[in-house]
Amino acid sequence: MTERIGIVGGGIVGIAIARALTARGVGEVTVLEKERRLAAHQTGHNSGVVHAGLYYAPGSLKAQLCAAGRVLIREFCQEKGLPYREVGKLVVAVDDTELPALAEIERRSIANKVPRLARIDDPAHLRDIEPHVAGVAAVHSPETAVVDYASITEAMAQDVRAAGGTILLGHGVTEITVDGDTVRVATDASEHEFTRLVVCAGLQSDIVAKLVGADPSPKILPFRGEYWALSPDRTDLVSGMIYPVPDPRFPFLGVHFTRGVYDDVHVGPNAVPALAREGYGWLTISPKDTWESLRWPGAWPLAKRHWRMGVDEISASLVKRLYFGKARRFVPELRMADLEAKTASGVRAQAWGRDGSLLDDFAVDRIGPVTVLRNAPSPAATSSIAIAEHVLQHHLDLAAT
Ligand SMILES: Cc1cc2nc3c(=O)[nH]c(=O)nc-3n(C[C@H](O)[C@H](O)[C@H](O)COP(=O)(O)OP(=O)(O)OC[C@H]3O[C@@H](n4cnc5c(N)ncnc54)[C@H](O)[C@@H]3O)c2cc1C
Protein backbone atom coordinates (compact mmCIF):
# COMPACT_ATOMS: atom_id res chain seq x y z
CA MET A 1 0.00 0.00 0.00
CA THR A 2 1.34 3.45 -0.87
CA GLU A 3 1.54 5.67 2.18
CA ARG A 4 -0.24 9.00 1.77
CA ILE A 5 1.11 11.27 4.47
CA GLY A 6 -0.43 14.62 5.29
CA ILE A 7 1.38 17.28 7.31
CA VAL A 8 -0.47 20.17 8.94
CA GLY A 9 1.69 23.28 9.20
CA GLY A 10 4.22 24.96 6.95
CA GLY A 11 6.58 26.17 9.65
CA ILE A 12 10.13 24.88 9.84
CA VAL A 13 9.14 21.71 11.73
CA GLY A 14 6.39 20.63 9.30
CA ILE A 15 8.58 21.37 6.28
CA ALA A 16 11.59 19.56 7.80
CA ILE A 17 9.41 16.47 8.35
CA ALA A 18 8.07 16.70 4.77
CA ARG A 19 11.66 16.96 3.50
CA ALA A 20 12.81 13.93 5.50
CA LEU A 21 9.85 11.89 4.19
CA THR A 22 10.25 12.89 0.54
CA ALA A 23 14.02 12.32 0.71
CA ARG A 24 13.28 8.73 1.75
CA GLY A 25 10.69 8.30 -1.01
CA VAL A 26 8.02 7.31 1.52
CA GLY A 27 4.80 7.48 -0.54
CA GLU A 28 2.98 10.72 -1.28
CA VAL A 29 3.58 13.70 0.98
CA THR A 30 1.24 16.73 1.18
CA VAL A 31 1.73 19.76 3.42
CA LEU A 32 -1.37 21.80 4.30
CA GLU A 33 -0.63 25.36 5.44
CA LYS A 34 -3.39 27.81 6.29
CA GLU A 35 -1.44 30.96 5.42
CA ARG A 36 -0.51 32.11 1.88
CA ARG A 37 3.20 31.72 2.67
CA LEU A 38 5.48 29.41 4.60
CA ALA A 39 7.08 30.38 7.93
CA ALA A 40 4.29 32.89 8.60
CA HIS A 41 4.26 32.48 12.38
CA GLN A 42 6.96 31.41 14.88
CA THR A 43 9.45 30.35 12.20
CA GLY A 44 9.40 33.80 10.63
CA HIS A 45 9.17 35.68 13.95
CA ASN A 46 12.07 34.56 16.10
CA SER A 47 15.58 35.55 17.19
CA GLY A 48 17.29 33.55 14.45
CA VAL A 49 19.64 31.90 16.93
CA VAL A 50 21.09 28.43 16.38
CA HIS A 51 21.32 27.39 20.02
CA ALA A 52 24.26 25.32 21.17
CA GLY A 53 22.40 23.64 24.07
CA LEU A 54 23.32 25.69 27.13
CA TYR A 55 20.02 25.65 28.96
CA TYR A 56 18.29 22.33 28.53
CA ALA A 57 17.92 19.58 31.14
CA PRO A 58 20.60 17.00 30.31
CA GLY A 59 19.09 13.92 28.68
CA SER A 60 15.91 15.75 27.63
CA LEU A 61 14.70 15.68 24.04
CA LYS A 62 15.51 19.40 23.84
CA ALA A 63 19.13 18.73 24.85
CA GLN A 64 19.56 15.80 22.45
CA LEU A 65 17.76 17.25 19.43
CA CYS A 66 19.27 20.73 19.83
CA ALA A 67 22.80 19.26 19.79
CA ALA A 68 22.06 17.11 16.74
CA GLY A 69 19.95 19.78 15.05
CA ARG A 70 22.61 22.50 15.35
CA VAL A 71 25.05 20.44 13.30
CA LEU A 72 22.38 19.50 10.74
CA ILE A 73 21.25 23.14 10.29
CA ARG A 74 24.87 24.20 9.80
CA GLU A 75 25.40 21.50 7.15
CA PHE A 76 22.13 22.44 5.44
CA CYS A 77 23.12 26.12 5.27
CA GLN A 78 26.54 25.16 3.89
CA GLU A 79 24.97 22.90 1.26
CA LYS A 80 22.47 25.58 0.14
CA GLY A 81 24.79 28.57 0.41
CA LEU A 82 22.61 30.18 3.09
CA PRO A 83 24.16 32.50 5.69
CA TYR A 84 25.29 30.83 8.94
CA ARG A 85 27.36 33.02 11.25
CA GLU A 86 28.96 31.80 14.46
CA VAL A 87 28.88 35.14 16.25
CA GLY A 88 29.08 33.50 19.70
CA LYS A 89 27.07 33.99 22.87
CA LEU A 90 28.03 35.38 26.25
CA VAL A 91 25.66 34.62 29.16
CA VAL A 92 26.51 37.31 31.70
CA ALA A 93 26.04 37.45 35.47
CA VAL A 94 25.81 41.15 36.27
CA ASP A 95 26.42 40.66 40.00
CA ASP A 96 27.26 37.97 42.57
CA THR A 97 23.60 37.08 43.22
CA GLU A 98 23.44 35.58 39.71
CA LEU A 99 26.48 33.34 40.14
CA PRO A 100 24.58 30.24 41.39
CA ALA A 101 22.24 30.36 38.37
CA LEU A 102 25.23 30.88 36.07
CA ALA A 103 26.91 27.82 37.65
CA GLU A 104 23.79 25.80 36.80
CA ILE A 105 23.94 26.96 33.16
CA GLU A 106 27.60 25.96 33.08
CA ARG A 107 26.79 22.54 34.58
CA ARG A 108 24.06 21.92 32.01
CA SER A 109 26.25 23.15 29.16
CA ILE A 110 29.04 20.75 30.14
CA ALA A 111 26.56 17.85 30.47
CA ASN A 112 25.12 18.77 27.06
CA LYS A 113 28.62 18.89 25.54
CA VAL A 114 28.29 22.45 24.28
CA PRO A 115 31.34 22.81 22.02
CA ARG A 116 34.27 25.01 23.16
CA LEU A 117 32.34 26.35 26.15
CA ALA A 118 34.38 28.59 28.45
CA ARG A 119 33.71 29.98 31.91
CA ILE A 120 35.01 33.51 32.38
CA ASP A 121 35.53 34.99 35.85
CA ASP A 122 37.59 38.01 34.94
CA PRO A 123 35.52 41.08 33.91
CA ALA A 124 38.44 42.28 31.76
CA HIS A 125 38.35 39.03 29.83
CA LEU A 126 34.59 39.50 29.31
CA ARG A 127 35.40 42.75 27.57
CA ASP A 128 37.92 41.02 25.27
CA ILE A 129 34.89 39.20 23.85
CA GLU A 130 32.26 41.95 24.20
CA PRO A 131 34.06 45.29 24.67
CA HIS A 132 31.00 47.15 26.00
CA VAL A 133 29.62 44.56 28.40
CA ALA A 134 29.45 44.86 32.19
CA GLY A 135 29.34 41.85 34.48
CA VAL A 136 31.23 39.80 37.05
CA ALA A 137 31.35 36.45 35.24
CA ALA A 138 29.98 34.68 32.17
CA VAL A 139 29.89 31.53 30.14
CA HIS A 140 30.90 31.88 26.51
CA SER A 141 29.67 29.66 23.71
CA PRO A 142 31.64 30.66 20.61
CA GLU A 143 29.72 28.30 18.29
CA THR A 144 26.25 29.72 18.97
CA ALA A 145 25.23 31.04 15.56
CA VAL A 146 22.64 33.11 13.75
CA VAL A 147 20.67 32.24 10.62
CA ASP A 148 17.51 33.23 8.73
CA TYR A 149 14.97 30.51 9.54
CA ALA A 150 12.41 31.72 6.98
CA SER A 151 14.97 31.31 4.15
CA ILE A 152 15.98 27.92 5.50
CA THR A 153 12.32 26.84 5.46
CA GLU A 154 11.93 28.04 1.84
CA ALA A 155 15.06 26.10 0.84
CA MET A 156 13.77 22.97 2.55
CA ALA A 157 10.43 23.43 0.77
CA GLN A 158 12.24 23.54 -2.58
CA ASP A 159 13.73 20.12 -1.73
CA VAL A 160 10.26 18.82 -0.85
CA ARG A 161 8.82 19.97 -4.20
CA ALA A 162 11.85 18.71 -6.14
CA ALA A 163 11.40 15.26 -4.57
CA GLY A 164 7.72 15.12 -5.58
CA GLY A 165 6.03 16.45 -2.43
CA THR A 166 3.10 18.87 -2.57
CA ILE A 167 2.77 22.03 -0.50
CA LEU A 168 -0.67 23.63 -0.47
CA LEU A 169 -0.78 27.21 0.83
CA GLY A 170 -4.05 28.78 1.94
CA HIS A 171 -5.39 25.38 3.03
CA GLY A 172 -6.37 25.72 6.69
CA VAL A 173 -7.40 22.42 8.26
CA THR A 174 -10.90 22.62 9.73
CA GLU A 175 -11.89 18.96 10.25
CA ILE A 176 -10.07 15.69 10.90
CA THR A 177 -11.85 12.33 11.00
CA VAL A 178 -10.03 9.13 11.85
CA ASP A 179 -11.72 6.10 10.31
CA GLY A 180 -9.67 2.96 11.01
CA ASP A 181 -6.42 3.37 9.07
CA THR A 182 -7.72 6.33 7.08
CA VAL A 183 -7.53 9.97 8.11
CA ARG A 184 -9.97 12.28 6.34
CA VAL A 185 -8.94 15.91 6.40
CA ALA A 186 -11.04 18.87 5.28
CA THR A 187 -9.49 22.27 4.75
CA ASP A 188 -11.26 25.48 3.81
CA ALA A 189 -10.21 24.77 0.20
CA SER A 190 -9.93 20.97 -0.25
CA GLU A 191 -10.55 17.46 1.06
CA HIS A 192 -7.96 14.70 1.50
CA GLU A 193 -7.57 11.10 2.57
CA PHE A 194 -4.30 10.11 4.19
CA THR A 195 -2.87 6.96 5.73
CA ARG A 196 -0.93 9.08 8.27
CA LEU A 197 -1.19 12.65 9.45
CA VAL A 198 1.47 14.66 11.27
CA VAL A 199 0.33 17.86 13.01
CA CYS A 200 2.96 20.60 13.41
CA ALA A 201 0.61 23.52 13.93
CA GLY A 202 2.68 25.57 16.37
CA LEU A 203 0.43 28.11 18.09
CA GLN A 204 -2.65 26.13 17.03
CA SER A 205 -1.31 22.68 17.92
CA ASP A 206 -3.74 22.08 20.82
CA ILE A 207 -6.69 23.27 18.71
CA VAL A 208 -5.80 20.96 15.82
CA ALA A 209 -5.13 18.12 18.32
CA LYS A 210 -8.68 18.59 19.62
CA LEU A 211 -10.02 18.00 16.09
CA VAL A 212 -8.57 14.47 16.41
CA GLY A 213 -10.19 14.01 19.82
CA ALA A 214 -6.96 14.48 21.79
CA ASP A 215 -6.92 15.67 25.40
CA PRO A 216 -7.15 19.48 25.58
CA SER A 217 -4.13 19.39 27.93
CA PRO A 218 -1.45 20.56 27.42
CA LYS A 219 -2.73 23.88 26.18
CA ILE A 220 -0.90 26.61 24.34
CA LEU A 221 -0.92 29.86 26.33
CA PRO A 222 0.56 32.41 23.97
CA PHE A 223 3.33 34.76 25.16
CA ARG A 224 4.51 37.50 22.84
CA GLY A 225 8.12 38.60 22.64
CA GLU A 226 8.87 42.10 21.35
CA TYR A 227 12.15 43.30 19.85
CA TRP A 228 13.68 46.75 19.61
CA ALA A 229 16.20 47.52 16.89
CA LEU A 230 19.49 49.08 17.91
CA SER A 231 20.16 52.18 15.86
CA PRO A 232 22.59 51.35 12.97
CA ASP A 233 25.26 53.79 14.19
CA ARG A 234 25.37 52.02 17.59
CA THR A 235 25.47 48.37 16.53
CA ASP A 236 29.19 48.34 17.41
CA LEU A 237 28.09 48.08 21.06
CA VAL A 238 27.50 44.37 20.44
CA SER A 239 29.83 41.91 18.68
CA GLY A 240 27.76 38.73 18.95
CA MET A 241 25.10 37.85 21.49
CA ILE A 242 24.81 39.06 25.08
CA TYR A 243 22.30 37.17 27.22
CA PRO A 244 21.25 37.50 30.85
CA VAL A 245 21.38 34.55 33.21
CA PRO A 246 17.82 33.23 32.82
CA ASP A 247 15.48 33.14 35.78
CA PRO A 248 15.24 29.37 36.48
CA ARG A 249 11.56 29.73 37.48
CA PHE A 250 10.58 31.00 34.05
CA PRO A 251 10.90 29.31 30.62
CA PHE A 252 11.98 32.36 28.63
CA LEU A 253 15.55 33.52 28.33
CA GLY A 254 15.19 37.24 29.18
CA VAL A 255 15.86 40.34 27.08
CA HIS A 256 19.13 39.92 25.20
CA PHE A 257 21.19 41.50 22.45
CA THR A 258 21.63 39.58 19.21
CA ARG A 259 23.68 40.50 16.18
CA GLY A 260 21.53 39.05 13.41
CA VAL A 261 22.64 37.27 10.30
CA TYR A 262 22.26 40.48 8.25
CA ASP A 263 24.32 42.48 10.81
CA ASP A 264 21.36 44.24 12.38
CA VAL A 265 21.36 44.17 16.20
CA HIS A 266 18.09 43.55 18.00
CA VAL A 267 17.26 43.72 21.67
CA GLY A 268 14.65 41.39 23.07
CA PRO A 269 12.42 39.47 23.26
CA ASN A 270 10.50 40.18 26.44
CA ALA A 271 7.56 37.95 27.37
CA VAL A 272 4.04 39.37 27.72
CA PRO A 273 0.72 37.52 27.54
CA ALA A 274 -0.59 37.78 23.96
CA LEU A 275 -4.25 38.73 23.54
CA ALA A 276 -4.38 36.73 20.31
CA ARG A 277 -2.46 33.58 19.41
CA GLU A 278 -1.29 35.19 16.22
CA GLY A 279 -1.33 38.75 17.59
CA TYR A 280 1.88 40.64 17.02
CA GLY A 281 0.99 43.80 18.99
CA TRP A 282 -1.21 44.97 21.87
CA LEU A 283 -3.86 46.17 19.40
CA THR A 284 -4.49 42.72 17.93
CA ILE A 285 -7.05 41.18 20.23
CA SER A 286 -8.90 37.93 19.72
CA PRO A 287 -11.74 37.73 22.28
CA LYS A 288 -11.96 33.98 21.55
CA ASP A 289 -8.25 33.30 22.17
CA THR A 290 -8.21 35.51 25.27
CA TRP A 291 -11.33 33.87 26.70
CA GLU A 292 -9.89 30.39 25.97
CA SER A 293 -6.67 31.30 27.82
CA LEU A 294 -8.54 32.80 30.78
CA ARG A 295 -10.83 29.83 31.25
CA TRP A 296 -7.94 27.34 31.18
CA PRO A 297 -7.63 26.12 34.81
CA GLY A 298 -3.83 26.26 34.55
CA ALA A 299 -3.83 29.98 33.75
CA TRP A 300 -4.71 30.96 37.32
CA PRO A 301 -2.00 29.11 39.28
CA LEU A 302 0.43 30.34 36.61
CA ALA A 303 -0.70 33.95 37.05
CA LYS A 304 -0.54 33.59 40.84
CA ARG A 305 3.00 32.24 40.70
CA HIS A 306 4.38 34.77 38.24
CA TRP A 307 2.22 37.89 38.70
CA ARG A 308 5.16 40.05 39.79
CA MET A 309 7.17 39.11 36.74
CA GLY A 310 4.04 39.56 34.58
CA VAL A 311 3.48 43.12 35.84
CA ASP A 312 7.17 43.87 35.31
CA GLU A 313 7.17 42.53 31.74
CA ILE A 314 3.92 44.27 30.76
CA SER A 315 5.13 47.58 32.21
CA ALA A 316 8.41 47.29 30.29
CA SER A 317 6.45 46.54 27.11
CA LEU A 318 4.38 49.71 27.52
CA VAL A 319 7.06 52.03 28.90
CA LYS A 320 10.24 52.20 26.81
CA ARG A 321 12.33 53.49 29.74
CA LEU A 322 11.67 50.27 31.68
CA TYR A 323 12.58 48.05 28.72
CA PHE A 324 15.72 50.15 28.23
CA GLY A 325 16.58 49.61 31.92
CA LYS A 326 16.57 45.82 31.43
CA ALA A 327 18.91 46.06 28.44
CA ARG A 328 21.25 48.65 29.97
CA ARG A 329 22.19 46.35 32.87
CA PHE A 330 24.65 44.57 30.56
CA VAL A 331 25.69 47.41 28.32
CA PRO A 332 25.98 50.57 30.47
CA GLU A 333 26.93 52.72 27.47
CA LEU A 334 23.51 52.08 25.93
CA ARG A 335 21.41 55.25 25.63
CA MET A 336 17.65 55.32 25.43
CA ALA A 337 17.78 56.82 21.93
CA ASP A 338 19.85 53.80 20.77
CA LEU A 339 16.70 51.68 20.96
CA GLU A 340 15.35 52.94 17.70
CA ALA A 341 11.99 51.29 17.26
CA LYS A 342 10.00 48.22 18.16
CA THR A 343 10.61 46.43 14.91
CA ALA A 344 9.43 42.89 15.34
CA SER A 345 7.64 40.47 17.58
CA GLY A 346 6.84 36.79 17.78
CA VAL A 347 4.39 34.69 19.77
CA ARG A 348 5.71 31.60 21.50
CA ALA A 349 3.74 28.36 21.35
CA GLN A 350 4.48 27.19 24.88
CA ALA A 351 2.33 24.37 26.25
CA TRP A 352 1.08 24.32 29.88
CA GLY A 353 -0.68 21.67 31.91
CA ARG A 354 -4.10 21.92 33.58
CA ASP A 355 -2.41 22.68 36.90
CA GLY A 356 -0.40 25.55 35.44
CA SER A 357 2.79 23.50 35.15
CA LEU A 358 5.12 24.21 32.29
CA LEU A 359 5.64 21.44 29.76
CA ASP A 360 9.35 21.99 29.43
CA ASP A 361 10.41 19.37 26.92
CA PHE A 362 9.39 18.81 23.31
CA ALA A 363 6.29 16.59 23.29
CA VAL A 364 4.90 14.30 20.61
CA ASP A 365 1.59 12.39 20.99
CA ARG A 366 0.20 9.60 18.91
CA ILE A 367 -3.53 9.10 18.33
CA GLY A 368 -3.87 6.11 15.99
CA PRO A 369 -2.53 7.17 12.60
CA VAL A 370 -2.17 10.79 13.72
CA THR A 371 1.04 12.14 15.26
CA VAL A 372 0.77 15.53 16.99
CA LEU A 373 3.65 17.75 18.05
CA ARG A 374 2.14 19.23 21.18
CA ASN A 375 5.09 21.28 22.36
CA ALA A 376 7.78 22.57 20.02
CA PRO A 377 8.96 25.91 21.42
CA SER A 378 12.54 27.18 21.30
CA PRO A 379 14.96 25.58 20.38
CA ALA A 380 12.68 23.79 17.89
CA ALA A 381 13.92 25.88 14.95
CA THR A 382 17.54 24.92 15.76
CA SER A 383 16.42 21.31 16.29
CA SER A 384 14.01 21.07 13.33
CA ILE A 385 15.95 18.61 11.14
CA ALA A 386 16.70 16.42 14.17
CA ILE A 387 13.04 16.62 15.28
CA ALA A 388 12.08 15.37 11.81
CA GLU A 389 14.45 12.38 12.12
CA HIS A 390 13.13 11.68 15.63
CA VAL A 391 9.48 11.74 14.50
CA LEU A 392 10.22 9.44 11.55
CA GLN A 393 12.13 6.96 13.71
CA HIS A 394 9.99 6.90 16.83
CA HIS A 395 6.49 8.01 15.86
CA LEU A 396 5.80 6.99 12.26
CA ASP A 397 7.04 3.37 12.14
CA LEU A 398 8.48 4.04 8.71
CA ALA A 399 12.09 3.14 9.56
CA ALA A 400 12.02 0.05 7.36
CA THR A 401 11.01 1.93 4.19
C1 LIG B 1 9.96 35.33 19.94
C2 LIG B 1 10.52 33.98 19.59
C3 LIG B 1 11.90 33.78 19.55
C4 LIG B 1 12.42 32.51 19.25
N1 LIG B 1 13.76 32.36 19.07
C5 LIG B 1 14.25 31.16 18.67
C6 LIG B 1 15.63 31.01 18.35
O1 LIG B 1 16.39 31.98 18.37
N2 LIG B 1 16.08 29.78 18.02
C7 LIG B 1 15.25 28.69 17.96
O2 LIG B 1 15.72 27.59 17.68
N3 LIG B 1 13.93 28.83 18.21
C8 LIG B 1 13.42 30.03 18.53
N4 LIG B 1 12.08 30.18 18.73
C9 LIG B 1 11.21 29.02 18.60
C10 LIG B 1 10.98 28.65 17.15
O3 LIG B 1 10.66 29.78 16.36
C11 LIG B 1 9.85 27.63 17.08
O4 LIG B 1 10.11 26.61 18.03
C12 LIG B 1 9.72 26.99 15.70
O5 LIG B 1 9.64 27.99 14.71
C13 LIG B 1 8.52 26.08 15.68
O6 LIG B 1 8.24 25.73 14.34
P1 LIG B 1 6.85 25.10 13.97
O7 LIG B 1 6.92 24.70 12.55
O8 LIG B 1 6.52 24.05 14.98
O9 LIG B 1 5.79 26.26 14.24
P2 LIG B 1 5.36 27.51 13.36
O10 LIG B 1 6.50 28.16 12.71
O11 LIG B 1 4.52 28.37 14.23
O12 LIG B 1 4.48 26.86 12.21
C14 LIG B 1 3.21 26.30 12.45
C15 LIG B 1 2.41 26.48 11.18
O13 LIG B 1 1.18 25.78 11.29
C16 LIG B 1 0.22 26.51 10.58
N5 LIG B 1 -1.12 26.11 11.03
C17 LIG B 1 -1.67 26.28 12.26
N6 LIG B 1 -2.93 25.80 12.27
C18 LIG B 1 -3.17 25.30 11.05
C19 LIG B 1 -4.31 24.68 10.46
N7 LIG B 1 -5.45 24.49 11.13
N8 LIG B 1 -4.22 24.29 9.16
C20 LIG B 1 -3.08 24.49 8.45
N9 LIG B 1 -1.99 25.10 8.95
C21 LIG B 1 -2.04 25.48 10.25
C22 LIG B 1 0.55 27.96 10.94
O14 LIG B 1 -0.02 28.87 10.02
C23 LIG B 1 2.06 27.93 10.91
O15 LIG B 1 2.59 28.30 9.65
C24 LIG B 1 11.54 31.42 19.02
C25 LIG B 1 10.14 31.64 19.03
C26 LIG B 1 9.64 32.90 19.30
C27 LIG B 1 8.17 33.12 19.23
Automatic annotation (TrEMBL):
Family membership noted in the UniProt record: Belongs to the L2HGDH family.
PANTHER family according to UniProt: L-2-HYDROXYGLUTARATE DEHYDROGENASE, MITOCHONDRIAL
Keywords assigned by UniProt, alphabetized: FAD, Flavoprotein, Oxidoreductase
Cofactor: FAD
Cellular-component GO terms for this entry: cytoplasm
Residue stretches making up the FAD dependent oxidoreductase domain: 5-391
Pfam families: DAO (PF01266)
Protein name (database record): L-2-hydroxyglutarate oxidase
InterPro entries: FAD-dep_OxRdtase, FAD/NAD-bd_sf
UniProt EC number: 1.1.3.-
Molecular functions per Gene Ontology: (S)-2-hydroxyglutarate dehydrogenase activity
